[in-house]
């Protein structure tokens, strides 16, 4: 059903589309925003017309996850003097956050978007993930509220405990947060002023924290976890803040989260592309990945696909796209929702989800105005 509603498509277990939602200014200079949902076809490099439009109370700067056959959107902010502020805070500071939550049931699209229980605290671009029937929202609060969790079968949100012996005054949660489905744990990386940058695991079933590495090191927006291997970008160019993916030099790193060891990365074909440090990395299924970002100044999306596999303790990478795809798209702010083998959606009747298995969470990455043109 979600594929029919949101235009999601896959072929042979590999997603052909990415689901995205974007905030657009309706009336220039008036602060009026509207959040629309679209799908990006990775095969034809086309973006659909608006598939669904959020209620007016939905704010720019929200985050979203998919859980089962439902999509949740939460948080966001209003700029100063925004007459559409749902709380009427027109004369507040430059901006202020909200805690609204909205849900779309893809089994009943005729019902549209419904308001769900609000978060405990207003949050702007909370770092979010869905896992085993629950939604986790980290950071995004100006009052330094660490995180909260929502059991969709329950009635509301609850605070999430802080890792023991962790000073949250000097640490922030890095984006993204990732769900390790086979081991029912959530990876949370903390950025520390002056370092080190520890990597923690939150065990969903036991509701407990474990420090995996006190000095894990770098993290990036372009991070994905697939089959026990953590992939992310590192070593960006100082002047352009961009990372080179090439058979001559590679900024893609791989870390085995089970064996807790780094894996060498080798390119098996000639390939060269620069991607911004703050781009998104999305697993499309069966070892296919996509780097995607929105070049705000140019009003375009750009993306490039690669394929990876683990062979004899090494990660082998080949280019899938022959060139960098560029798709015109004007928006003030955008986010993607991407699927991988542990993050599936239920498709329309007569079809199954990706790899024919049931849905768990969907990961999200936001785009910041730090583009590679």
Briefly, what is this?
This protein is an all-beta fold.
Write the layout of secondary structure elements.
Elements: H1 2-6, E1 10-11, E2 14-15, E3 17-25, E4 33-41, E5 46-47, E6 52-53, E7 63-67, E8 70-74, E9 77-79, E10 95-97, E11 101-105, E12 113-116, E13 127-131, E14 134-138, E15 147-151, E16 157-159, E17 171-173, E18 178-180, E19 185-192, E20 199-203, E21 208-213, E22 223-226, E23 229-233, E24 242-246, E25 252-256, E26 261-263, E27 265-267, E28 272-276, E29 280-285, E30 288-295, E31 300-311, E32 314-319, E33 325-328, E34 333-338, E35 363-366
Parallel strand pairs: 27-32
Antiparallel strand pairs: 1-2, 3-4, 3-34, 4-5, 4-6, 7-8, 8-11, 9-10, 11-12, 13-14, 14-15, 15-16, 17-19, 18-19, 19-20, 20-21, 22-23, 23-25, 24-28, 25-26, 29-30, 30-31, 31-32, 31-33, 34-35
What does this structure look like?
The chain has 373 residues and is mostly beta strands. The protein has one domain: Kelch-type beta propeller (Neuraminidase), CATH 2.120.10.80. The chain is 1% helix and 46% strand. The strands form 9 sheets. Strands 3, 4, 5, 6, 34 and 35 form a 6-stranded antiparallel beta sheet that branches. Strand 30 (288-295) and strand 31 form a beta hairpin. The chain is globular. Residues 340-370 have low confidence and may be disordered. InterPro entries: F-box/kelch-repeat_ARATH, Kelch-typ_b-propeller.
